[in-house]
Hints:
Order of helices and strands: HHHHHHHHHHHHHHHH
Helix content: over 70%
Number of domains: 1
Strand content: under 5%
Radius of gyration: 20 Å
Oligomer: single chain
Structural class: mainly alpha
Amino acid sequence: MFANLASDLRAMPRPLWMLFAGTFVNKFGSFVMPFLVLHLTKHGHSPAKAGLAVGAYGVGHLAASALGGWLADRIGRRTTIALSMFTGAAAMLALSQAETFSTITALTLLLGAASELYRPACSALVTDLAPPEKRVTAFAVYRLAINAGFACGPATAGFLAEKLFIWLFIGDAITSALFGVIALATLPDGERQRGDKADWRADLKQVARDREFLCFLLAVAPITFVFFQMTASLPLHVRDVGLSSAAYGVLISLNGLIVVICELPLTSVTQRLPARPVMALGYLLTGLGYALTAFARDAWTLAGTVLVWTLGEMLASPVSLAYVAGLAPLHMRGRYLGMVSVVWALGLIAGPTWGTALYAHDAPQLWALCAGLGVASALCVWVGPERRQVEQVP
Length: 394
């Protein structure tokens, strides 16, 4: 297993490693959003209003998801990543000075848009550069970079949040700008579509005819609501059982640490298995892990629930990204991955907004809903059309 993994890693080109490095830097500095709900409630805003602000971040994601995919195919991966990072850094600094709730909401919407543009470009660049048979591993390394940063960042941010929250905004902005510099200096633009071939309406029609891809999007939608309770209702539950912001930061960092240690070895096995059963099991475990939060009243039990839903994440996420990359025509990789980002953005809107409202009304009902949505996603991906590949040679 480890010999195969080492061979897969050696096959990856240098620009991929630079992309992974920039991703790590950016995710290490993702200080603000995991703590925004706690920050706003600490300053007198209700949980529902705090959830609305985070939901506005999701609206920005939604607006930028499809645009990010189009830009990745049209102006190139590198340029799209740099544009996203520099705009996000500016928006974060502006948010640090916001005082009224309306201004905070408007800026989180802008930040959500700016920070989402790069995702389809990164995923498309991984697809461009990695050999097809190594893509699951490449996406696992990409996620390792994300989660290694996320393992270190929130734990650091949790302790900073107890002292002076402004440093979270500054650090977040600096790391975003640094990724922008790395992108401009080291990354290629990847596959691009030029001229009158870039017909967005025709491409939408092609996506609408792709039943396999549409079924996958339908399967992903419910689990996104569940996943985003991590930064919405979960911190409220941690607070309500008497734990601190630092404890919440450690729990979120535990998620990243488990992924860093376990996902690559796990992926060396799952990339050789049929994609749909692996994704279905991942979605089931994700729903179950969040449902068990209802019974977790101390840090150790909460850590156990994190272990369960993290296992689900490790099973489903790298396989699903490679699955979509295999379905996408060469000239539409950015847009296919952008459509996946659109679905995740809808979850980022619905998860915090409805999740925090339902938590305030009836918390056990929220956690039970997470279990049901995990089952729904698993069933949809399990009974969907068989996987097909449309890999094209440039």
